[in-house]
Structure formats: structure tokens, C-alpha cells
Structure of DUF35 domain-containing protein:
Amino acid sequence: MTAAGGTHLWAGLSARTLMIRRCECCDLLLAPVAVTCSSCGSDHLSRVPSTGLGSMVTWKLADRTGVGADDDALPSMLAVVALDDGPWICSWIEGEIAVRPGRPVRVEFDHLGSDERYPVFHGCQHGTAVRVA
Ligand SMILES: [Zn+2]
């Protein structure tokens, strides 16, 4: 998903900022892909930066293609993350982390192509990403 002008829907100009939506009518913060406000129904939504911090709500192992050296699907963890800002987002979890409800995570961006980025989450403590090889 790419917004007009080539800017990716998810990422802010810094390429490290997850952008979410805010309703201009009632100020509710919404998921990045929202097109209307779930509270008042308005379609006047602006893009605002998220903290990128959240916690895991639920997760499931799923086959994921395009992450390895070949095209074989690899088992990866797909999770619903409740952002500290409020909205929930469904995304991949990178690295092996001890999963439990409420596990803190932080967004980072992986690259699909030369200018395409998508959000993934890593386990973290105190707002700092922790990569586990
Ligand atoms: Zn609204």
C-alpha cells in the first residue's frame, strides 16, 4: 500500500515512525489503514505519528513468504499489537521472543523493495528494541 507521492502508508518521513490515523472530528486515534472513524463515522482522517510502542494481544504462527533466501514459506509469528496510542495493528513479530499477553513490543521497518517498507515488531523492554538472533 502506497499513498500518493510514493510515501508509504505506514511510515513517516523519518522511515522509523509508524503513522496512524486521527479523526479530525472527534480526535479518536485509528489504525493506519482506517478509512473512516469507528466512533463518529467521519472520513476526515489525518496521519499522525505513533509512539511505535505497544503490547501483544494475541498471536499465531503462520507461513510467511519472501523472508528467506528463497521463495519457500517460513513459519513466522503474526500478532495483534495494541499500540500504546490506542489502535490495534496486525503485524509480524521479528526474532524469537518469549510470548505472553501484554508482552511489550516496538515497531521497526523492514524493506520489501527499494522504497517499500512495512512495519514489524520486536520484543522490547523500557521502550528499547531487543533483537534476538
Ligand atoms: Zn471520529
In short: Residues 23, 25-26, 28, 37, 39-40, 42 surround zinc ion (CB under 6 Å). The beta strands are 19-23, 29-30, 45-49, 53-64, 74-83, 88-93, 104-111, 117-125, 128-129. The two ends are 29 Å apart (CA to CA). Residues 53-124 form one domain.
